[in-house]
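User:
Hi there, any thoughts?
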Amino acid sequence: MAGAPGSGKTLLARALPGILPEMSIEESLDVTRIYSVADQLPAGTSLIRHRPFRAPHHTISHAGLVGGGNIPKPGEISLAHRGLNGFVNGVISENRLDTGGKLLMSLLFGSVLF
């Protein structure tokens, strides 16, 4: 989306998950696993049932967007899985998927295959 600041882009993006179909149990489990690994599962929540909406700031770091760090954690793109990310750009191409659907991330101490 493009437009002047305050024109309602984020408001519109926040409304989109509400019109998307409900998540299946498999989709809910996928999202819950990601949030659990990222240590962002809300207290008292055993299963996330609503599609996530993530709106990271435009100054987010590469590691914050795609994930990584000394102890690898999911980034905003992964946290928006099965939902919407209000800020996605060409950074996704910096990660490489092999033919088996695994993600190879190059980190400071070496490479990690997810």
Q: What stands out?
A: Helices lie at 9-19, 25-37, 62-66, 76-79.
